[in-house]
Amino acid sequence: MTHHALTPTRRWSRPAAILLAVLLAVAGLAATRSTSASAAVPSGFAYRCGIHFCLDGKAYYFAGANTYDVFTYGSGSGDTETQYMDKTRIDAQFANLQADKVSVLRLWMFSHEDWHGFEKSKGVYNEQEWSEFDYIIQSAKAHNIKLIPVFENYWEAYGGIDTRLKWEGLNGGQPGRAAFFDKSRCPGCFTSYKNYVNYALNRTNHYSGIKYKDDPAIFAWELMNEPRYQDQSTAENVNGTTLRAWVDEMGAYIKGIDPNHLLGAGLEGHGSKYGFGGDEGNPFVYVQQSPYIDFTSAHPYPTESWANLTLDQTKKLIRAWISDSHDVVGKPFFMGEFNVQNVDRSTWWNGLYTDFEAAGGDGSAFWWYMDRQVDPNYGVLAGAPELSVFRAHSGRMAAKSGTTPPTDGPTTPPTNPPTTPPTKPPTTPPRPRRPLPHHSPTTPPTTPPTTPPAGSGCAVSYQLSDWGTSFNADITVKNRGTSAINGWKLVFSFPGGQTINSIWNAKATQSGKQVTVTNEAWTGTIPAAGSVNFGLNGASSPGTNGVPTAFTLNGQNCSIG
Questions:
Q1: Which residues contact 208 (CB under 8 A, 6 or more apart)?
Q2: N or C terminus: which one in the chain shows less Cβ crowding within 10 Å?
Q3: Is the pLDDT score of 23 beyond 60?
Q4: How many C-beta atoms surround the C-beta of residue 377 within 10 A?
Q5: How far apart (Å, rounded) are the C-alpha atoms in residues 138 and 133?
Q6: Helix 241-257 to helix 187-202 angle, to the nearest 10 degrees?
Q7: Whole-number Å distance between alpha carbons of 468 and 411
Q8: pLDDT of 6
Q9: Per-residue CA distances from 392 to 42, 67, 359, 370, 389 (Å)
Q10: What residue segments make up the domains of the chain, in order of their start?
């Protein structure tokens, strides 16, 4: 929601104008690795396995919430440990969240205000506030809740990017804040944002001694709350090229510091394509096809006057996002905010959650779980009747977790997209697809791998993200035959002196330039006319990376592409 979540002395409101422009026609862009995998990170880190989330080698589905303002719990002055932060209130809130089966909590990790500000002036970081966030991480960990901290705000709440623009001598507001995403107009905005996330990722928690970038209590980071590049031109509203370039640059920067955590863009999912809001320079598909983004997000608020959707229309909207996320973008879908007002909330939640699960949604987070003075529009307090519906949803999501990672749907998006999205939309929004049935892959047998039938063929897609001294490769092995392959070994050679640091969804050995990759239990079967996907991270010398020129699968030569 384009909410303006503010300090207790202010309210948040919806910008009045919503553009209804033309639609972004979706185009696939191969997405690289998630961020990490069971073979690549310490126990407890979440990662992307194809179009779903995984944790410790198993599928992971979650039911979450937002308590965006937990960082403000305390007086905001006085002694850091006993006054500035209210540890009792923080712990009590996490205890309530745990009791109501909240698995993941999305929250703000930004403010430029004097009260509880993380960065009150440019480049000056408030140790007291960061110490409070250290404690928030510890409390979340003690209550078995993972966190999705958000680095910055598009909206004016807590200063947001308007403050960063002001630091550079520019005006914010709508649509002036679009300058934040344009390096030619605000190069200092790029620098100050990078400096901030660098500080956060490399901060050492003074309670645990663990750097934020190394802490599995963090489920994922989000670049920004609801970013847009709106009303700069009709083409930009539809295509989102400037915002996508910003997401690519900041995503690559963050991945260079923290390769272990998932990363999201924080999008709302608005667009004329979906009949929900307008085209605002942040198209759902194109922006989130960024190879540095690991999951998609959307924020449905169907009972807002500008949306005015029925329950059934909202179900279709969410299914359309899930379909595009899984089948076009090739990534998990996170419903990062949602709620309803002026309707029977329990009825709506039950309808939305059950349909979300049936459609294969990967994670949800309602807006917002409060601890006092409930907001009349969207606030939810412990004991609210709709929380019984949420707990049932959480239980069902937990029941889907801990299993062998599912293989329903493609594991990578198309490999030959146009370089820019087309500008002409269809006349009506596409109908959402029915969800594919859930199938768990078969564990490969202990007998020798099956050689692909002669003449059936195999193909390998190797998508490279080259950062000079390091690189990621997202690799899809395709079985073009009519029989399944049970157990596989892929052999190829790097073009230079590359070395593997980590690999996910597979196992690898390296001898010189030659790499031998074998399946994990959950990637052992390649169905007829199907595929499996794995990824790796490695070290390299600048200018030496490239796509290997030959691949063999169980001894048979494969085509490339």
A1: 134, 137, 138, 215
A2: C
A3: no
A4: 17
A5: 9
A6: 30
A7: 26
A8: 32
A9: 30, 20, 17, 20, 5
A10: 46-401, 458-560
pLDDT of 14 higher than 70: no
**Residue 470 burial by Cβ neighbours in a 10 Å radius (0-12, 13-18, 19+):** middle
The number of angstroms, rounded, from the C-alpha of 7 to the middle of its chain's C-alpha atoms is 26
Class of the CATH-defined domain 46-401: alpha beta
Q: Which long-range contacts (CB under 8 A, 24 or more apart) does 326-329 make?
A: 326/51, 326/360, 326/409, 326/410, 327/409, 327/410, 327/433, 328/26, 328/28, 328/285, 328/413, 328/414, 329/28, 329/31, 329/285, 329/288, 329/289, 329/296, 329/413
Instruction: Taking residues 475-499, report their average pLDDT.
Output: 92
Q: Which two tokens mark 194? A: 């990078």
- CA 267 to chain CA mean position, Å: 9
Beta bridge partners, 259, equal none
d(CA 293, CA 266): 10
Could you tell me the two tokens for 285?
Answer: 């598909």
- Residue 399 CA: distances (Å) to CA of 41, 145, 216, 351, 395: 24, 17, 22, 19, 6
Rounded CA gap, 199 and 252, in Å? 16
CA–CA distance, 459 with 228 (Å, rounded to integer): 38
Read off the pLDDT band of 274 (50, 70, 90). very high
For tokens 């965006």, the residue is 68
Q: Residue 469: what pLDDT? A: 80
Residues 199, 481: Cα–Cα separation, whole Å: 50
What is 458-560's CATH number, 2.30.30.40, 3.40.50.720, 2.60.40.290, 2.60.40.10?
2.60.40.290
Measured N-to-C along each axis, helices 311-324 and 345-358 cross at an angle, to the nearest 10 degrees, of: 30
- Entry pTM: 0.70
Domains 46-401 and 458-560 share a fold: no
| pLDDT number for residue 425 | 30
pLDDT, tens digit, for every residue of 312-334?
999 999 999 999 999 999 999 99
